[in-house]
């Protein structure tokens, strides 16, 4: 079946991410903040995908200087300065539309936007316990390279902010893979993606 896939910058709150990442991962409050972090002048790094008019995917990406270089970051191992990196916060694709290249299409649009801001790459904390380790597999196929692993990345979020991890069934003990995607290493999108 042929589907019509379209993309647009994110301009309103959406909860598709919670279907993938767990309850309270995205809230009206943090989505407002994430949208602020995605904007730099007229450039918007957050994107939505629609299939036949239905919301099918979301990509949240932060502009350089709007995300913290915290204890779960290893800047000494990065090939670029933090000011040259966007931060890939999260991505989610509705299970009904996986396999249509939506995740990669959203990523490429965020990359194109980030390049307008002078970014040479992007950093992400990839959910290593995602079902089938799909997050790591996806980001690796897109050119991401593992920098470091961080245990219990979302523990505090689950304890203090009400995040409910779908893998741990509540309090989160999942690890994050700190991965860096150099924009020179991103495979081109084919018509099959």
TrEMBL record:
Keywords: Transferase. PROSITE patterns: GNAT. GO terms for molecular function: acyltransferase activity, transferring groups other than amino-acyl groups. Residues 5-166 form the N-acetyltransferase domain. The keyword RNA-binding does not apply. It comes from the Bacteria. The keyword Transferase applies. This is Acetyltransferase.
